[in-house]
Write a structure and sequence with these properties.
Elements: H1 11-25, H2 27-78, H3 82-114
Helix pairs in contact: 2-3
Length: about 120
């Protein structure tokens, strides 16, 4: 392959290439782009954490609903009040799952609000 004689390239093409390089590779552009990518990664992580908390809350709700139904069925079948007492523990489980969801959501929101924007 032969080298291209710099004198053979039109100066407007060289100028356009230099301007494109400056516009895309200057230190400030690279720094700003990197900060944006870091924020997007943090936002994605926060979204996944909230999604996991939603899944946990949903699964806990399913378990609580099933356990409540079972406890009520056992109470109706036996009249044993300990099954009604179990409902209190089930409600506590749901309350804690809701608190966990709220805490994860608040932490994710705070982290993103405090994340450096560049």
């Amino acid at each position: 392959m032969s080298e291209l004689d710099p004198g053979m390239v039109d100066s407007s093409i060289v100028d356009a290439i230099n301007q494109a390089q400056t516009a895309t590779m200057s230190p400030q552009v690279v720094k700003t782009g990197g900060a944006g990518k870091a924020y997007q990664a943090a936002a994605g992580a926060a979204a996944l954490a909230i999604q996991d908390a939603v899944d946990s809350l949903r699964h806990t709700g399913t378990i609580a609903t099933s356990a409540s139904g079972l406890a009520l069925a056992q109470f109706l079948a036996s009249g044993d009040p300990r099954y009604l007492e179990a409902l209190s523990g089930i409600q506590t489980m749901m309350t804690e799952a809701t608190r966990n969801f709220a805490a994860v959501s608040a932490a994710a929101t705070q982290m993103l609000n405090e994340f450096p924007s560049g």
